[in-house]
Amino acid sequence: MDRLVGQLKALGDENRFRIMMMLRERPLCSCELLAVLDIAGGTLSAHLRVLRESGLLRQEKKGRWVQCSIADQNARSLVDLLADRVLQSEVFEDDRSAVAAMPPATDATGPACPPRAPSRTVPGSAPRSAPRS
After folding, report:
1. For 35, which of 15, 52, 96, 114 could close a Cys bridge (C-beta 3.0–4.6 Å)?
2. 132 alpha carbon, distance to own chain's centre
3. Residue 100 to residues 24, 25, 31, 67: CA-CA distances in angstroms?
4. Is residue 117 part of a domain?
């Protein structure tokens, strides 16, 4: 019972729930999740840790990439049960379309991850490596 309660708590966050809905489609690497969710890498890592510790998520390192998938059949059953209730939401449909449009990750030699957007700089600020005057 404690495990189920922990899993439901983990799914109580919108981004974590969206991650699990996307993983219903296919395993995804973390860069693919970043591209769809449009959140910071550190934020994604924290969400993935919560999902992994709850027993919902499995991560497998393949070369430079970390592939995420639903942990096991029990986790899939829980996610599927909840998905049947919410998949008409526009957010989930947009996520599903984004995942479907991405070429699948190939293998450890380099999945087809979308390029990251360039980091934003604040106007008038100097790069960290440049000395300030």
Report:
1. 114
2. 37
3. 12, 8, 15, 16
4. no
Q: Give the CATH number, domain containing residue 62.
A: 1.10.10.10
* Residue 55: inside a domain: yes
- Distance between CA atoms of 11 and 68, rounded to whole angstroms? 16
* Boundaries of domain holding 81: 2-101
CA–CA distance, 8 with 2 (Å, rounded to integer):
10
The domain total for the chain is 1
The better pLDDT of the pair 84, 54 is held by 54
With tokens 């293998």, the residue in question is 107
- What amino acid is encoded at 102 in this protein? M
For residue 29 the two structure tokens come to 């690497």
